[in-house]
TrEMBL record:
The gene is nusA. It is found in: Cytoplasm. Keywords: Cytoplasm, RNA-binding, Transcription, Transcription antitermination, Transcription regulation, Transcription termination. Participates in both transcription termination and antitermination. This is Transcription termination/antitermination protein NusA. NCBIfam families: NusA (TIGR01953).
Length: 409
């Protein structure tokens, strides 16, 4: 086993795992110096020369030339007669360097050296992987499904590194087979038993945010800001956006022409419905927008208790609540208010002819001739105008109003 074999093997590993040159040289030198310490009890008088490009490794031992009877440490000193037999030009006090071959270490020592080298390289690769993905936390990565288990999916990136997508981080409608391409966000990087564990997520709000950045150039360029995202993965999401340029409609830019931009996002999220709303600091308006597509009649807010009472027409209540209560749940999450929805009670109007037993017929006819044929149409007018339109005395008009009001009290 020679130097070249060790270095060439390492060079192949280095190329595969992308370990930088300076780190590689440092590890090699450290490993060989450790071997020298075990073999010679010191590495202080040794030079380890490494050329990683060519795969060359040389170890040179430096010894001082001393008189024949003055050699106390054969590893640090060499007798003058021994050195002159090699090169007659050496004199006492000179430094003599001789090359140490790996074969002189012995089979067991070389095997130990190889194992130590492999272990150090593996540790380096783990540290490099941890550092690489620690910098990618919050970014989208794409990989290939390698194995599907009950509780998680094993994914390989383009460098064959293992990534994990736990069941809890999968969209409920996700279904994968080996070989499928998957897109997810790097949620966290952990070290378990000195082994980096890279956790991906497709349910994180940040995943949706990154998808918007990919599909909407105005968001990527900072012209539109995503103020808040709330999601029930696989079901529905609400995204509040704001534009710093009055010429840009943030909702329109996010949706795109005929929904072209948001379509690819919805498709990636397994048809998750996405509502994009204009952000505002006005809580009343924000609650109204968050309950879209329902049309709100009125809102009463208690800012101290962070509660809101929303009143809607009967046909709008189901829209505000949404299927399975999703719409109102997401509205609460988006606005931060505890929202209660109330059905607006509409009082039915009554025709004036229904009051024939209380109001004289000629008065009813006069009011109808003036354009008022229902009780509410009369009550909407001031008493003076009622009297003028129907040619009534003020007292007569006042009595009519009292009779009609009693109907609704």
């Amino acid at each position: 086993m020679d130097n070249l074999n060790l270095i060439s093997n390492f060079a192949e590993f280095k190329e595969l795992k992308n370990i930088d040159k300076s780190t590689m040289i440092g590890v090699l030198e450290d490993v060989f110096r450790h071997a020298l310490q075990k073999q010679y009890e010191t590495d202080e008088n040794f030079d380890v020369i490494i050329n990683p490009e060519k795969g060359d490794l040389e170890i040179w031992r430096n010894r001082t030339v001393v008189e024949d009877d003055a050699v106390e440490d054969p590893n640090a000193q060499i007798s003058v007669s021994e050195v002159k037999a090699i090169d007659p030009t050496y004199e006492i006090g000179d430094e003599y360097a001789d090359e140490i071959k790996l074969s002189s270490f012995g089979r067991r020592a070389v095997l130990s050296l190889r194992q130590n080298l492999a272990s150090r390289i593996l540790d380096l690769e783990k540290a490099s992987l941890y550092e690489k993905y620690s910098e990618k936390v919050g970014d989208i990565v794409t990989g290939e499904v390698y194995q599907v288990w009950k509780k998680e999916v094993l994914i390989l990136d383009d460098e064959e590194n293992e990534l994990i997508l736990p069941k809890a981080e999968q969209i409920p409608n996700d279904f994968y087979r080996k070989g499928d391409t998957i897109k997810a966000i790097v949620k966290s990087v952990e070290m378990n038993n000195n082994q980096p564990r890279i956790i991906l997520s497709r349910t994180a709000n940040q995943f949706l945010e990154r998808l918007f950045e990919q599909e909407v150039p105005e968001i990527f360029d900072g012209l539109i800001t995503i103020k808040k995202i709330v999601r029930i993965p696989g079901e529905r999401a609400k995204v509040a956006v704001e534009s710093y340029d009055e010429r840009i409609d943030p909702v329109g830019a996010c949706v795109g022409m005929k929904g072209s931009r948001i379509y690819s996002i919805v498709k990636e999220l397994r048809n998750e419905n996405i509502d994009v709303v204009n952000y505002t600091a006005n809580p009343t308006l924000m609650i109204q927008r968050s309950l879209n597509p329902a049309k709100v009649s009125s809102i009463t807010i208690d800012e101290e208790k962070m509660t809101a009472s929303v009143y809607l027409k009967p046909d709008q209540v189901s829209l505000a609540i949404g299927k399975g209560g999703l719409n109102i749940r997401l509205s609460k999450m988006l606005t931060g208010y505890d929202i209660d929805v109330y059905r607006e009670v509409e009082e039915e109007d009554v025709a004036l002819t229904e009051f024939a037993d209380e109001i004289d017929g000629w008065v009813i006819d006069a009011l109808k001739a003036a354009g008022c044929d229902t009780a509410k149409s009369v009550l909407e007018l001031p008493v003076e105008e009622i009297a003028a339109r129907a040619d009534l005395e003020l007292e007569q008009a006042q009595k009519v109003v009292e009779i009609l009001k009693a109907e609704f009290e």
